[in-house]
Design goal:
Number of helices: 3
Strand content: 25-35%
Largest sheet: 7 strands, mixed
Radius of gyration: 16 Å
Number of strands: 7
Distance between the termini: 44 Å
Oligomer: single chain
Helix content: 10-25%
Shape: globular
């Protein structure tokens, strides 16, 4: 029996994403020409803008946060919001990697390249119990899970 081409393509995309090789999109439209590539620790200057950054994502239980690769005020203060992946029923593209990370949080972290909108609200907050003063609403992501 021959496997339909779209099934083969879907399997290939999931395998590549699980290896952290390819970016996957949430299904939301965004203008690639508006993306500003920025270091994580400089995100405060890009409120409400579409950014691309590389970060480390780690945590425990329901507390997960992003941090840069240098010391800065934003480290562990930024929530990654993946809601558009779930709203657009594209969570199957990120769930295997996130589940692997969450199930092994004492020994694993993720290095992610993220395209999304950076928002900061120190009064209302974001994430679990609104405990993070900033978030990135993720539009596209590459996830590489690795040992700490």
């Amino acid at each position: 029996m021959e496997i339909p081409k779209y099934i083969t393509l879907l399997i290939l995309v999931i395998v590549l994403q699980s290896c952290g090789v390819t970016m996957v999109n949430s299904g939301s439209d965004f203008d690639k020409s508006e993306i500003t590539e920025v270091e994580f620790c400089r995100l405060n200057n890009y409120q409400g803008q579409l950014i691309k950054t590389t970060l480390e994502y780690s945590g425990m239980e329901e507390y997960w946060g992003a941090r840069g690769f240098e010391d800065c005020d934003l480290n562990n203060e930024v929530d990654l919001n993946f809601e558009e992946f779930y709203e657009n029923e594209r969570d199957y593209l990120i769930d295997p990697q996130l589940r692997r990370l969450y199930n092994n949080y004492p020994t694993h972290k993720a290095i992610m390249t993220v395209i999304g909108v950076f928002n900061k609200d120190t009064i209302n907050g974001f994430g679990h119990l609104n405990s993070y003063p900033a978030e990135i609403l993720v539009k596209s992501v590459r996830i590489k899970v690795k040992h700490k």
